[in-house]
Design goal:
Layout: H1 2-34, H2 37-73, H3 77-104, H4 106-112, H5 120-132, H6 134-149, H7 153-177, H8 181-205, H9 222-256, H10 258-295, H11 299-326, H12 328-333, H13 340-353, H14 360-372, H15 376-402, H16 404-439
Helix pairs in contact: 1-2, 1-7, 1-8, 1-10, 2-3, 2-5, 2-6, 2-9, 2-10, 3-6, 4-5, 5-8, 6-7, 6-8, 7-8, 9-10, 9-15, 10-11, 10-13, 10-14, 11-14, 11-16, 13-16, 14-15, 14-16, 15-16
């Protein structure tokens, strides 16, 4: 049945996505408790550069994953191993260049991303350590995607769980036990990612994998690199757009609300990511189900899969909505020792920003539907509509009229606008599917 299929395909992805979200939410909880609001603000203004690092990891990792799957489907294992070798060198090389740039220009970059004079020392301490260990994040994240591509999602899920759980253990140890402050939080993240990278590399080196990482495949070949980059470009572009959005948002928050507003947004981002990750897992699970049945012209099952995924995603987003609306002060309190100003501002901001959260699940799954049926242009437009096409203009325009409240209101406005746009396109598609289902 469709619900059972969806659960089978989505469960590992949901667990993996939640593990990924734990990095951010745990870091900010312990930073808030040990360092305070300026620490959260420091991590928040560092986030755009971390997104850039992640974007290049996606460019190579996701591109290599798709290419590996294609080569294995063509029974060309040697070429798949060549992709793996080239991807490993690309990940390490690109990250090394970005790390050097980040370390040399760290202060100007942080100011560009919204750091004030007060926040800059906290952000610098945090980002320096993250950048020094960026190669571990890149290798662990990028090559873990290849594990999924060779057909072993369980190992890929375990990799993410190892890193997330280790981070949960190391964060309080380094922050409260050793008193290392921002550097301690960053060190916990880097060490966790280093363990993940070691685990992934050992998987490909010790013969437990279908593909082997061999020295002969490490020299870069332009044809392989070009294919990896071409396939990985869409998620790379979207992640870069997210970095631009975060930088613009931090600067607007600093202008209209100061460092405290940036701290509040840092908390809200962590919560939103934790709620969104299961929805992304549902997306990953339903995509092959929709694609297979669409290709097989079983349009009735396509409809059932789509509607089941929308229902599941809406249940997740609505549950998150109810928690943040009923217990906002308790949620903010997880990130703050005893700061009444942060709790008051954070409570108001969270309730406003997440006002349209129940419909976000529908928008994300519906946009993904167009990707699953081979309509990537529509999928790209709808996916970008929330966080780029509508949100960035709203973040720039609304504060001119409503100040800080306009910034908070930009989020539900973008959520509503993108959901209406997506709903209109999906309605046309559903009518087409019903007609095809009735005629088949």
């Amino acid at each position: 049945s469709i619900p059972r299929l969806l659960l089978t395909f989505s469960a590992p992805a949901i667990v993996g996505m939640l593990a990924q979200a734990l990095y951010n939410i745990v870091d900010r909880i312990f930073i808030g408790q040990a360092v305070g609001p300026l620490g959260i603000a420091g991590a928040t203004v560092s986030f755009p550069f971390m997104l850039i690092l992640m974007a290049f990891g996606m460019l190579v990792g996701f591109g290599a994953t798709a290419l590996v799957s294609i080569r294995l489907g063509e029974q060309q294992r040697d070429q798949a191993e060549q992709v793996l070798g080239n991807a490993t060198v690309l990940l390490a090389g690109v990250t090394a260049v970005l790390s050097v740039i980040g370390l040399i220009f760290i202060d100007p970059l942080l100011v560009l991303f919204g750091a004030s004079d007060q926040v800059l020392p906290y952000a610098r301490d945090y980002l320096q350590v993250i950048v020094l260990g960026a190669v571990f994040q890149s290798l662990g994240f990028g090559l873990n995607a290849v594990i999924r591509g060779e057909g072993n999602p369980r190992i890929a899920m375990i990799t993410m769980l190892i890193g997330a759980l280790l981070n949960v253990v190391l964060d309080p140890l380094f922050l409260f036990g050793f008193g290392w402050g921002m550097r301690g939080a960053a060190a916990a993240t880097v060490l966790s990612q280093a363990v993940c990278a070691t685990w992934v590399l050992s998987y490909f080196l010790r013969g437990r994998s279908l593909l082997r990482l061999q020295r002969k495949n490490l020299p870069l070949r332009w044809s392989v690199c070009r294919s990896i980059i071409a396939i990985g470009s869409p998620p790379f572009a979207m992640q870069l757009a997210a970095s631009v959005l975060n930088a613009i948002l931090n600067n607007q928050l600093g202008r209209y609300g100061g460092d405290l507003a940036i701290s509040a947004m840092g908390i809200i981002w962590a919560i939103v990511m934790f709620i969104a990750m299961p929805i992304i897992g549902i997306n990953q699970g339903v995509q092959p189900i929709i694609g297979y049945n669409y290709g097989a012209r079983k349009y009735g099952r396509v409809l059932r899969a789509l509607l089941t995924a929308i229902l599941a995603a809406t249940l997740v987003s609505t549950s998150g909505f109810l928690v943040v609306m009923i217990f906002p002060e308790r949620v903010i309190g997880l990130f703050s020792r005893d700061d009444p100003a942060l709790r008051q501002l954070g409570t108001h901001a969270m309730r406003t920003c997440l006002l349209m959260l129940p419909i976000v699940g529908f928008q994300i799954v519906s946009a993904n539907y167009f990707q699953a049926v081979g309509k990537p242009k529509k999928a790209m437009l709808l996916t970008l509509s929330r966080q780029v096409l509508l949100l960035i203009p709203a973040v720039l325009i609304l504060p001119h009229f409503f100040g800080l409240n306009g910034l908070w209101a930009a989020f539900p406005a973008a959520d509503l606008g993108s959901s209406l746009w997506t709903g209109a396109w999906l309605l046309v598609e559903l009518r087409y599917l019903r007609r095809r289902a009735e005629s088949s």
